């Protein structure tokens, strides 16, 4: 009982600033401020993004009556001042959102009177509003801000803090996507990498090739119209989240064959698909056919317009040589053109498609295989997405490319769920399950010491591949694990004193964030028994302390 | 395209009987029967259980318009007869539900006219109604029963097909429990093993010791009143599901110490809990104190009345010797009574508590440690729950005990989710994740050849330990994997011809069951991309075929 009572006493103290992700710098006081009603106003011209965000957070904060699990026995905080509203101002109303967007902000909450949130851009203000919403806690019948006066100065460690969302293996409603964008905003994530099509289905409308959707969507209700896409983009932008679409070519394209078999190689080889693709159904655009270049480039023309972000992901992962080597058109081409083998054709294909994408003015993203496993050399403005190992990050920055890490070793949220091929009682290739602790401990910039190279590490992305995931399970598959990545990408691995944060230190704060997300309608999964969340430090392994 | 079209053609054929779990014997015809409206009537006296089940299934079937994913391209079935209603009759209206309850039934659906469901007991009729509900499929604007005439004769392979549900590590609302009971009924599972209390919280009301709940529940809204328990029991019984409560003693009882520290040993040792318990917080009933026997027996008196099933689970897993060896009372007792060491005290404690439980007339369940890791010898009517390995099943039946297998190697649904101690970036002790294929391939009676011993294997239980699970995630954690176990426990491992069913053979039918469960409001997780569900056999590993 003694220890239990002690835990109760500790829990009764107002906790230190518990914002997730933790701000770069903050100073907290020892008073508490009573909050009767959260009024938020703007100073000067702030633009529609900020105006909307103010509305949104006013609703969230006034509706919310959140108490962290570790504070469950906390009595009412004694307050010595009254909150006098929050005033938001921005230096610029430029609502351009991209890799260079400044997301910094400062917050000052006095013990008594008006608080201020200042940002350079509208998106900095959006981040600051999320931080401010996490400062307000339930207190008796009302609310309070603990540990005032508070000063926060914050900015992200990395400019790309993403989530890859796969809507092809299984379909997700627009509502599920919007809910996911909300959850991303709660964690200051800023890139929704929409892996919108893959081999299994083509949910998105195409006006250039309507048959892709009519033949390739899982059904008439399992589609994204132009209007749906625009809605997702606008909803994301309002939260400072970029939507980077991926149209993965030339592999992972079986579904194109449902309407355009003439463009394809090795279409749905059965049985024996495993010799032609990483997963069923097999099928790749036919690199011997100029029509497949024209097809890809017409898609690029269409979708670089529909998707307004400065970046565009052209895929390029897991292409299979055997698929082409056995293709009759490729075989014929090689016979007629000595020396022009699969590698030659693939390199030419890449150059024709990547050149076209470059000409649209977009920043291309491509999977690491394009750089490391082909002879093609993408333009220097290309951003490489590494996934096969941390070495890929090191190698990409070494080659002068900018890189985003979604290393499967840490960031593949689908892993550890066992294999999914019907006749195999085995594990998945990327076991084990990536725990939040494992994700949190991962360092995307490990072993990169050169400052210029380090700067080319743009950030991290968790990936929610959807072979075993759909709308029924997406929330707990993503959260709170994606939040663990989000903190390391926003706050960095170390605090201002250079101390690398440990999972034991941050667990209580992540519990708080998880319960906050649940209170906001996101079905984030529990990290531990509630007893552990309420008794910080009591569920650690002693030998590791 | 050729192969894809072929798959379409195959999918257009009405599928073979797709009931999950598959009936022991069934004969199907080659006609299809039109269903305009599902009327279900009863013949003779059937009793309230059947009358309620008829109401329930009439609603389910008429509301449902379910088409299996593999049938998505199927045209309207040509029908050559019209369904004339289902008539349900039972040989006996005895509503006693227990291990010996006969769950057999027969169903006959002619091409034209009235169908019949006959059962020996009301619970056989409940099982048959579930089967019948799965025969009805969407057909154009209406419904149909495919492959008539149909004759089914069915009965379970094992009498105990259970789910362990842990409401202590994290809390579940009554609504979540009722939804889970619905899902169990959809899979003909018949035992809800309610692991209702454990170290972390004591949600259930006690009238003998009200302080257990008031001090031990996670909060006033996270409780089960007597009325809640009775509601769960009645809801389960209506679905032919027994509720076997577990009050785990003497280990896993920290929470008793919140109100009765005087009964406890090694209460919440911090740090260093790992020397005293399998997980935090540590704490065991003090075996040196007669008061702890009196306490346990008073709980038995109370809860054997509240929980009306013929069986009662008394726990007994993972007791820690060091916890007692260092306890001052135990040390004192040993000093004063030479020879009466921890093993002696534990054996005496077990005998005083088990004898008391035996005297209530209940059938005791206990975890295998009581039999294998203590010197106590439970009465022969005790049912052993094995979990540490398949050898435990073999050994238990060898000792003459009846046994239920919840081997962690196959049936621990929480496993493979990584460790949950805040400061450890590692896996869980019971990795990897148990896939439905792994669960399906497991044989609880493997290597038991003696007929009498084999008969003592009563069945199987999947376990949903809740350290990393609560209401946000329970549906996908349980389903469809629990359904995989359910089929092996109801239908057995082999068909009538002795052929052991393979996961490749049953995958399509389990997909159908998964989507049916989703249609019925259970958030079962997807097994594969929808493309695989729609194209049976296309997502197998070729080498394994």
TrEMBL record, chains A, B:
Q: What is its EC number?
A: 3.2.1.52
- State if Iron is listed as a keyword: no
Q: Keywords on this record?
A: Glycoprotein, Glycosidase, Hydrolase, Isomerase, Signal
Q: What top-tier enzyme class does this entry carry?
A: hydrolase
What is the superkingdom listed in this entry's lineage?
Eukaryota
From the Swiss-Prot or TrEMBL record, what is one GO molecular function term? Answer: isomerase activity
Signal peptide segment: 1-18
Any one annotated GO CC term: membrane
**What InterPro entries would the database entry show?**
Beta_hexosaminidase_sua/sub, GH, Glyco_hydro_20_cat, Hex-like_dom2, HEX_eukaryotic_N
* Residues annotated as domain Glycoside hydrolase family 20 catalytic: 158-492
Q: Which reaction does it catalyse?
A: Hydrolysis of terminal non-reducing N-acetyl-D-hexosamine residues in N-acetyl-beta-D-hexosaminides
- Please list every transmembrane segment annotated in the UniProt record, as residue ranges: none
Q: Which Pfam families match?
A: Glyco_hydro_20, Glycohydro_20b2
User: Which GO terms of type biological process are on file?
Assistant: carbohydrate metabolic process; glycosaminoglycan metabolic process
The active site lies at: 318
Domain Beta-hexosaminidase eukaryotic type N-terminal, by residue range, is: 19-135
Q: Which family does it belong to?
A: Belongs to the glycosyl hydrolase 20 family.
Q: What is this protein called?
A: Beta-hexosaminidase
Q: Which organism is it from?
A: Coemansia javaensis
């Amino acid at each position: 009982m003694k220890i239990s009572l002690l835990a109760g006493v500790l829990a009764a103290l107002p906790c230190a600033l518990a914002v997730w992700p933790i701000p770069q710098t903050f100073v907290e006081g020892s008073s508490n401020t009573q909050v009767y009603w959260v009024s938020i106003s703007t100073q000067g011209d702030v633009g529609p993004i900020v105006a909307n965000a103010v509305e949104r957070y006013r609703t969230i904060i006034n509706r919310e009556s959140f108490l962290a699990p570790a504070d469950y026995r906390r009595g009412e905080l004694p307050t010595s001042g009254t909150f006098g509203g929050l005033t938001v101002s921005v230096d610029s109303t430029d609502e351009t959102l991209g890799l260079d967007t400044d997301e910094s902000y400062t917050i000052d909450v006095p013990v008594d009177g008006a608080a201020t949130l200042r940002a350079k851009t509208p998106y900095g203000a959006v981040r600051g509003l999320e931080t401010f919403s996490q400062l307000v806690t339930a207190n008796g019948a009302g609310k309070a801000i603990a540990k005032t006066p508070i000063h926060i100065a914050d900015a992200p460690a990395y400019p790309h803090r993403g989530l890859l969302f796969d809507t092809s293996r299984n379909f997700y409603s627009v509502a599920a996507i919007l809910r996911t964008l909300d959850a991303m905003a709660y964690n200051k994530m800023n890139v929704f990498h929409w892996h919108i099509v893959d081999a299994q289905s083509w949910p998105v409308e195409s006006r250039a090739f309507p048959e892709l959707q009519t033949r390739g969507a899982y059904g008439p209700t399992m589609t994204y119209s132009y209007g749906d896409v625009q809605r997702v983009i606008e909803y994301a932008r309002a939260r400072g989240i970029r939507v980077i679409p991926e149209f993965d070519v030339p592999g992972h394209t079986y579904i194109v064959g449902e309407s355009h078999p003439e463009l394809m190689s090795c279409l749905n080889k059965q049985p024996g698909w495993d010799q032609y693709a990483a997963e069923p159904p097999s099928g790749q655009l036919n690199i011997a056919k100029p029509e497949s270049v024209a097809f890809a480039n017409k898609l690029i023309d269409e979708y670089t317009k529909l998707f307004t972000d400065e970046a565009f992901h052209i895929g390029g992962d897991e292409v299979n040589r055997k698929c082409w080597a056995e293709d009759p058109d490729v075989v014929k081409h090689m016979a007629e053109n000595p020396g022009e083998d699969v590698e030659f054709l693939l390199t030419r294909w890449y150059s024709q498609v990547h050149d076209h994408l470059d000409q649209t003015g977009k920043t291309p993203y491509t999977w690491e295989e394009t750089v490391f496993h082909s002879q093609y050399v993408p333009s220097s403005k290309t951003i490489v997405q590494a996934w096969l190992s941390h070495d890929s990050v090191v190698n990409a920055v070494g080659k002068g490319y900018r890189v985003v890490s979604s290393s499967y070793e840490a960031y593949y949220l689908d892993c550890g769920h066992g294999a999914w091929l019907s006749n195999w009682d085995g594990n998945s290739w990327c076991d084990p399950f990536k725990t939040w602790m494992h994700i949190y401990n991962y360092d995307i910039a490990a072993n990169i010491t050169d400052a210029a190279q380090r700067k080319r590490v743009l950030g991290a992305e968790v990936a929610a591949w959807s072979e075993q995931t759909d709308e029924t399970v997406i929330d707990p598959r993503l959260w709170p694990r994606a939040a663990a990545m989000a903190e390391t990408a926003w706050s960095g691995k170390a605090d201002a004193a250079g101390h690398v944060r440990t999972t034991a230190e941050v667990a209580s704060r992540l519990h708080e964030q998880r319960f906050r997300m649940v209170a906001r309608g996101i079905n984030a999964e529990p990290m531990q028994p509630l007893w552990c969340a309420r008794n910080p430090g009591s569920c650690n392994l002693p030998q590791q302390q």
